[in-house]
Specification:
8-stranded parallel barrel; alpha/beta; TIM Barrel; binds glyoxylic acid; binds magnesium ion; 2 domains
Length: 355
Amino acid sequence: MHNPREFGKPLAIGAPAPRLEIPFKPSRMIHFFDPSNEKMAAKLPELAAQADILLGNLEDAVAVDRKEPARAGLVKIGKEIDFGEAALWTRVNSLESPWVLDDVTTLVGEIGDKLEVIMVPKVEGAWDIHYVDRLLAQLEAKAGLTRPILVHAILETSLGVVNLEEIATASPRMQGMSFGPADLAASRRMKTTRVGGGHPGYLVISDPDPDDPQAPRRIAQQDPWHYSIARMVDACTSAGILPFYGPYGDIRDVEGCEAQFRAAFLLGCVGAWSLHPVQIEIAKRVFSPDPEEVRFAKKVLEAIPDGRGVHMIDGKMQDDATWKQCKVMVSLAEMLAHKDPDLAEAYGFAYIGQS
Ligand code: GLV
Ligand code: MG
């Protein structure tokens, strides 16, 4: 049993109180960078102007002999670079690794005031979040932080998928979740060698034509991730936290990436990872609602100010439920317009910019 009255209290004396509402800021892409790569670090101010979230990656893709330089590089970056409106996150090493304790201790101690979110890989159950939750509270107290650092779990093991709901509700520190198709495929023993996207072998095929059994049959590739992403969206949105699609590994396949991101967007994800600047552009396009749809949604809200009853607009039935869908669309568009002058113009909303 967990006493609900305890949720609003810090887990260590002197730590900041947990946030009971997760802030929803522009989050269309989490752009990954390797903090041990100085050339990449030099590009960060430019990337910060384009991306909503920049994440210094310490886990997979960082070689064992680069783990410590990556951690030290991120400390330097956090202290020296002005990220403007972009948020700074990190992905620490997994909880069983020899690096994670130093990752968390060093980063919270040195740049805890700059880091908004710590992404924890390979989360399997609420116990993983409870461990990080208490440790962060102790370190926040020690560092004298006044704002709690939030936690984001990667959903990338079969046990994690089984325990989705308890992970999403494990702590008020939970900010969201990302879907990790590469590790998830390995954990499930899926027979793939890809990072996200479909597979030419995962198909549905129409029945043979009885009058012409040799005639070509219609074939369509299926989405192997649909079930798990949809479950993640439900677990996150029911807990008031944010779901993201994760990586798309084939950088040259911009169409495949766009299709994967769009499927996630339509199901309810707020953003996706970008592993290359070209994917920042794709995420921006996909996770910013289409201006035509926003215009229609605005029309519905204006025509039905109280959101009640049944109405016909442009030949389509609108009621309380479609009004709520339109509200989701228009609220997202408004938030993004405040940050992006081009979107503000496309949507017809005010651009506020950095204040
Ligand atoms: C991401 O970390 C993945 O494993 O897909
Ligand atoms: Mg992974």
